[in-house]
Amino acid sequence: MTLYPRAIQSTPSSHKVDPSVTFVFEAGGSMAEILELGERFAEHDHPVLIEGETGTGKERVARIIHGLSSREGPIVALNCSAIPAELVENELFGHVQGAYTGADSDTEGYVQRASGGTLFLDEIGDLPLMQQVKLLRLVQEGEFEKVGSSDTIQADVRFIFATNRELAAEVDQGAFRSDLFYRIQTFSLRLPPLRERKADVPLLIQHYLWLATEQFNRPGLTFDGDAHKLLLEYSWPGNVRELENLVFRCALLSPSHIISVDQLPEQVRSNDLEYRRQKVERLRADLQREERELLEAALHVSGGNQRQTARLLGMSRGSLQHQLKKYPELWKQYST
Questions:
Q1: How far is residue 106's CA from residue 95's CA, in Å, rounded to a whole number?
Q2: Is residue 170 within 8 Å of residue 185, measured between CB atoms?
Q3: CA distances from 41 to 34, 53, 88, 271 (A)
Q4: Closest Cα to residue 94, out of 14, 149, 31?
Q5: For the chain, which end, N or C, has fewer CB atoms within 10 Å of the first or last residue's CB respectively?
Q6: What are the start-end ranges of the E strands in the chain?
Q7: What angle in degrees, to the nearest 10, is found between the helix axes of 317-324 and 306-313?
Q8: pLDDT tens for residues 98-124?
Q9: Within this chain, do residues 172 and 207 fall inside the same structural domain, yes or no?
Q10: Per the confidence metrics, is the pTM higher than 0.90?
């Protein structure tokens, strides 16, 4: 098992990777190759594009790249999907006093807050087309104007972008500007989903169990054999984030230090044959109860007349009698 960035903490002290930003992966696996490439990207100030599904760790990679770079300023993160279109420029560039009603003073945008460091723009694919024009100029020319000002400001910032969309497809559909795409995708990383990193799953389980043990003061936490098997077989649509949350939830709520299948959420247990059999049995019992209630209600409305009951239920009298015979109490009460 490799814990990243522990593997690089013996390198020169100029590196400033946040120790809390940890990646767990199999040595020599796909994530090892990606992070090695990220280290090489860190040496230069070119924009980096990180692609991957939600929960794969795009922001963690961005923070590692920033930490390994020579930039002394902070890394500042902005989620583009969380900003209304009309506020994007104000958030990115800031405004001057009097720019609009309520603008009582000059403000700095995210670009200036990240001065000397890195601006991490998450969900870049959600940025409206009109605002993509402004961003292209910022990335390409390194300059911008605050809202309400004509004074040009030089930006001293390195850009890292992330998206869970296929930007190439978005370009083909006209949803993302091609000039911006080609400007930011030269140095790109694709983070694989956890279902393509099966060898990393047991390492991640072990890692997050250890963290949960420390956080909740519950020594000896472990999954039993059946639960561990289901975790290995699960497809993890929410990726590493889903696995982390699941382990912490089980660690906190399990009555025993040995976490059993019963403590796993339903979406994981649904892979278990015995669980599926029990679920079918529960559904069958629910169906029989509802069927009995329906028959009883229809017979009551019809005064016990089988012909009227059958007509009410849209079936023949023979079918009704067949259904009634499954419930001896009803058959005894209404068979005449």
A1: 6
A2: no
A3: 10, 21, 28, 40
A4: 149
A5: C
A6: 2-4, 23-25, 48-51, 75-79, 118-122, 143-145, 152-154, 158-163, 188-190, 222-223, 258-259
A7: 100
A8: 888 888 898 999 999 999 999 999 999
A9: no
A10: no
Count of beta carbons in the 10 Å neighbourhood of residue 103: 16
Burial of 75 from C-beta contacts in 10 A (0-12 / 13-18 / 19+): buried
C-alpha to C-alpha distance for 101 and 269, rounded to whole angstroms: 55
Same structural domain for residues 32 and 90? yes
Q: Which stretches does DSSP call E strand in 147-253?
A: 152-154, 158-163, 188-190, 222-223
- For the chain, the distance separating the N- and C-terminal CA atoms, rounded to the nearest angstrom, is 74
Span 267-301, pLDDT tens digits: 898 875 555 666 677 778 888 888 888 888 888 88
21 & 163 share domain:
yes
115 and 232 inside one domain: no
Domain containing 320: what range? 273-334
Using CA atoms, how far apart are residues 320 and 333, in angstroms rounded to an integer?
14
Looking at the structure of the chain, the number of domains it has is: 3
